[in-house]
């Protein structure tokens, strides 16, 4: 039987409160669209994706979260994420102007309660080997994180 309340996930300290709020709202939207999400997923390129969403048919989306104009302007690595997904999106807070985000990526506006897809992302289908690699990385990260919640004193390390 499941506990009456869900466990509280530990905050890893890398995200601002705004970014955490955008992440939560975006994950709610993606879940409603049929996706499962993993945050902060290490990629084969050495980068770390803010949010990776896996669809039931194997579709892989990456969502790059930007909490402010400054956050967007300081980050030039987002084009590299295209190599690891079928569609690339930005997710941001309502106070960030949508006009700063490039047209070649989708756009989601979110807060801690939900999100809205403002612009769909163009599709660029992954190669089969990359899709398999991403799916396995997603599955391993999700399973290890679930094990760590079930056994907080165990040594479950992603990598």
List keywords for this structure.
alpha/beta; disordered N terminus; 159 residues
Topology:
Blueprint: H1 17-32, E1 35-42, E2 48-55, E3 60-66, H2 69-74, E4 87-92, E5 106-110, E6 115-119, H3 128-150
Parallel strand pairs: 3-4, 4-5
Antiparallel strand pairs: 1-2, 2-3, 5-6
Describe this structure in words.
The chain is α/β, with parallel strands linked by helices and 159 residues long. Helices cover 28% and strands 25% of the residues. Strands 1-2-3-4-5-6 form a six-stranded mixed β-sheet. The radius of gyration is 16 Å and the shape is globular. Mean pLDDT is 91; it is low at 1-10.
What would you say about this model in short?
This protein is of the alpha/beta class. It has helices at residues 17-32, 69-74, 128-150; strands spanning 35-42, 48-55, 60-66, 87-92, 106-110, 115-119.
Count up the helices. Answer: 3
Question: What is the residue-mean pLDDT, rounded to a whole number?
Answer: 91
Report the biggest beta sheet as strand number plus sense, adding barrel if it closes: 6 strands, mixed
What proportion of the residues form beta strands (DSSP E)?
Answer: 15-25%
**Distance linking N and C termini:** 31 Å
Query: What Rg, in angstroms, do the CA atoms define?
Result: 16 Å
Q: Show unreliable segments.
A: 1-10
* Helix and strand pattern: HEEEHEEEH
């Amino acid at each position: 039987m499941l506990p009456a309340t869900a466990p509280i996930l530990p905050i890893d300290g890398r995200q601002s409160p705004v970014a955490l709020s955008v992440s939560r709202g975006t994950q709610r939207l993606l879940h409603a669209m049929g996706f499962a999400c993993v945050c902060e997923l290490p990629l084969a390129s050495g980068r770390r994706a803010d949010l990776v969403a896996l669809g039931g048919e194997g579709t892989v989306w990456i969502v790059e979260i930007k909490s402010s104009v400054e956050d967007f302007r300081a980050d030039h690595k987002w084009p590299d994420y295209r190599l690891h997904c079928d569609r690339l999106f930005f997710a941001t807070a309502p106070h960030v102007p949508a006009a700063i985000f490039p047209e070649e990526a989708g756009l989601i506006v979110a807060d801690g309660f939900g999100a809205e897809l403002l612009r769909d992302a163009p599709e660029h289908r992954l190669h089969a080997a990359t899709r398999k690699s991403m799916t396995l990385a997603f599955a391993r990260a999700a399973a290890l994180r679930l094990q760590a919640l079930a056994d907080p004193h165990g040594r479950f390390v992603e990598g």
